[in-house]
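User:
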Amino acid sequence: MTGRRGRLSSTGPRARTSTMPPDTTTRPVPTGPGPVRTCVGCRERDLRSALLRLVLDRSGASTDEPRLVVDAGRSLPGRGAWLHASTRCLEAAERRRAVPRALRVAGPLDLAAVRTVIEAQAEEHG
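Assistant: Predicted structure:
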């Protein structure tokens, strides 16, 4: 075999396994109309309309410290990170430091505003 590589199997010692604990409420991957995004917390794919979009707001008074905001209209400029509106996904994203990585920011971000929005939505629906 010169210049060609065989395809790796999805099983065996080098197969990737999920770092998330098994969830009893798994959602099927949506196949309907609409754009699909991946949650930075649980790494599951879902419709864009079912996820929150997080962006950095650099237009504030202190331009040296950008703040994380929830983009309710999903139209603010800049790179976005998508997250399910659940505390489980938020905690997983915090533990894995996934939001700063997705937004390509060095250093930690304050997720208090996101937690407030998620808790408000939980009270609204529950």
